[in-house]
Amino acid sequence: MKRFEGKTVLITGSTQGIGAACALRMASEGANIILNGRKFDERGQGIIDQITAMGQQARFIAADVSDPKNVIGLVTSAIETFGRLDALVNNAGVERNHDFWDVTEDEYDFVMNTNLKGVFFGIQAFVKYCRANNRPGVVVNMSSVHEEIIFPHFAAYCASKGGLKMLTRNLATELAPLNIRINNVAPGAVATPINQHLLETPELLNNLLKNIPMKRLGKPEEVAAVVAFLASEDAAYVTGSTYFVDGGLTYHYEEQ
User: Where does the Ketoreductase domain start and stop, copy by copy (predicted)?
Assistant: First the structure.
């Protein structure tokens, strides 16, 4: 039997990169998938087509998860779509590159609302559903190595991921009696659209690779494999943890 047979998974920000890889990986193991993004386009349709070809179901729900009202509505709609929700993968995230003294309030709010506030209230909506229906649940948050290590010029991003680290640990204790597990996955440098400039700039890429013991970038599928593990019963005794998927970067890192 496949690990997610008969289960439904909601993955935010899932039309490209790591989110799309998570959707495809979990669908390949039997899950029906709720995809999410700001708007439906050919990327979302392409993922739906691939999942359908696997024999699973997939639906897309548009929502800007930086707004708590939207993310609560997203969770509600996801439950209504397939009649159940077994796992929530909070993958959507944003970053802004600015000197600290140039960060505007709007930019700060955009990063914090997407990476932390929306996640907070999305988890809350999922937990309320689980409690009301006496159901177990699993939450996997997409954090970053920068919940642990510095990233100059990305202060708001680091603050959001540091907050997510503490939120996850706190909720692990509070939600355990409800049979709800929660963990973080912290990717390092992964070949995704968000790193396109890095991939196209040899000097920047080479400097980064010097800090990665495995001397390569990660693949979205490698992150998705860890997400699938944490969302499955194989990780039934794992909660409150962060799993680094970084080729050894975090504890080898030196800012250049």
Answer: 7-188
